[in-house]
Amino acid sequence: MVGTGLRYGSIDNDFRFDDAMAGRGCTVYSFDPSMLDTPDHKRGDRVFFKRIGISDKDDDRFVPRVDEYVVKRPAVKGWPMRRLQTILDLLGHRKEQLTVLKMDIEGYEWNVTRDLLDSGILSSVPQFLVEWHLFTDFPPRERVPDAVDTYFRVSDMGFQLFVTSGLYQGSATSLRMQAEVAYLNSKRN
Question: pLDDT averaged over the chain?
Fold first, then answer.
């Protein structure tokens, strides 16, 4: 496998995925705005780290929803966030083909995926790996129909599920669901 992969989300200094992809010939760019003490760096010949996050809009002072992960890394001055189109421009990769796009962004994947669908960027990506999240309070109830629509739009675009695993924790007062899903773009392969 040779290509370029982008990984967004809870990296938390765990570069196993990145290193494994680089070992298969991919160049990998990893992004995690919550790693406050980690500057941008080149981790290896093919692995690069940037302390910014992916969003559906460019924002230098993004304040995430507080959860157990964010409590450990408070966004005192906010986190720098960028749309994928902006990130590709910053890296000088506007014309480069992405092979894999991987996101674990704790509930924000709904808005980001909608932006990727609306912009047309996702249609050119052969593999899309995402962790879908639903929490009691996030996304807000009024946005859940949009999340469901986004989920089905991914399939409608030609992405076929090839691996999934999930977690469900629920009670009368709380809910947490997450599903790690890997898609293959049937229209690109």
Answer: 86
